[in-house]
Amino acid sequence: MTTTKIAPLVMTTIEPPPAGAFTVHLVAVGDPPSPTLLAGWEMLGVRPLAVAAPDPGTNAPCLLFAPPVRGFVRAGLTQPFHGFIELGEGSEALSPGCVAAIRQGGLALSLTTRVASELDLAKVLVAAVGDRFGIASHILGRLELVLAEAISNAIIHGNLGISSEDRATLEGVQAFHAVMADRLADPVLASRRIELAVLKKAATLTLTLSDHGEGYDLARELGRMPTGSDKFGRGLALIRWLSHSVTAGDGGRTLVVTFDLG
Amino acid sequence: MDLVLTEDPASSTFRLGGTLTYRDNSQFNRVVQRLAVAGTSTVTLDLADLEYMDSFGIGLIVLARDEAAKRGRKLVITNLRKAIRDLFERLDLLAELPIEASAPTAPTPIPAADAGGDRLQVSALLESGADARVRLGGRFVVADQQLFLPVITAISQRNSGRVIIDVSALTFMDSGGLSMIMLANDQARRSGIVLAIANPRGAVKDLLKLAAIDLIVPIYDDH
Q1: B42-69, pLDDT tens digit by residue?
Q2: ipTM of the prediction
């Protein structure tokens, strides 16, 4: 019999980032940041300053704003950058979790659903987090699985609005992938953002993931314990089993997961 | 990065030297701007003197390729040093970039972790006495569930013996992969046969243990 500690679940309003504007350096590849993006970030307390390259002589975090090329995503998560923002629709918005992480030396990532679904984001992110924060390999293993589950949920159930029913048969799996392909072909749904932030403070690693879907009763889903023979629906249970705490907010659109590094 | 442009009526050649990193974003923009100018001439990136590039530099090269495709321009990348060629090979970019044949370099074996990318690899069903064995490799995630469907179909067509899923080369699996294993087990029961999992390693072994799959599906080592 496997005995597993289950992370406490808390439903709350996700806290906004600390008050007061702060400067973020922005390296843009291709199109320069639009006035809409700059105005949107100002409203979030982020004062973006366009620069040609990261400046090692400043404490201001530097973000990469670029087309969704794999090399750029990896580069944006690697020193001296503190995050990658996919150039395009919706890029003027940043989640409070991303703003807080950028401000405190963490990593932030903002991608459209289409791009997030094409990249193996969990693998890319866990490598970046390991390099950046020097996290032990057993924690990184747990983080990778939690990232994979949380990102899948944000894409499938969040931004694409696909229910988790009817995947218990071969036909159900085929139908699910057909629906997923249809919805990824919908420009409105495919351009919704997935925003992800990772922050290490003292002995805690915090992962914040937000989607822009209709929201759902995450507390009810998190509270459901799958049985051994269930053929699907283990994702959220795995997140609870592998983490220290799980917080859901913003009507089920934001998930905050912590890992105890001590 | 050193960047030297030479032109003639038929082509523009940028010779890149030194290192190509995030520091070269502005300078590389000259290449992108040249691709954006209307015309039919070929733009060549000569990498003969390029010694190193980071992931940002790779992004810039891919960006140039995309810009050329968007503008209908011909882009050629030539004279790769061995280190750069090896880097492109590891990232599966050799076939994706317009690289012109140049003096051959000794091929470098692709590390197992990078071979064929990380997508799920599913072998054919191999018969062994009354049993059949299928080998999985790479990463088994939701996006690749459909690659596993032929295994479930094959299980539905059997009526005796065991089907063994050898996962020794599987490096990662999420609940999407686990769901497909459980679906395969369901199908095996309906077909009156036994499904077993062989040789789980690392993260896959941890996941199977965490989800208590061994209570439902026999798991063993035979290596």
Answers
A1: 899 999 999 999 989 999 999 999 989 9
A2: 0.86
* Assigned superfamily of B2-90: STAS domain (3.30.750.24)
- Whether residue B182 and residue A231 make contact (CB cut-off 8 A), yes or no, is yes
Cβ within 8 Å, pair B56-A168? no
CATH entry 3.90.550.10 includes domain A9-260:
no
Name the band, by pLDDT with cuts 50, 70 and 90, for residue B109: very low
Which of B22, B119, B209, B210 is the best mutation test for A, with the most CBs of A within 10 A?
B22
CB distance A123–B139 less than 8 Å?
A: yes
pTM, to two decimals: 0.83
Low pLDDT (below 50) residues in chain A: 1-3
Domain B121-220: CATH superfamily is STAS domain (3.30.750.24)
Nearest to B26 among A52, A144, A173 (CB): A52
| Buried-state track A46-75, b at ≥16 Cβ within 10 A, e below 16 | bebeebebbeeeeebbbbbbbbbbbbbbbb
Query: How far is it, in rounded angstroms, from Cα B154 to Cα B110?
Result: 32
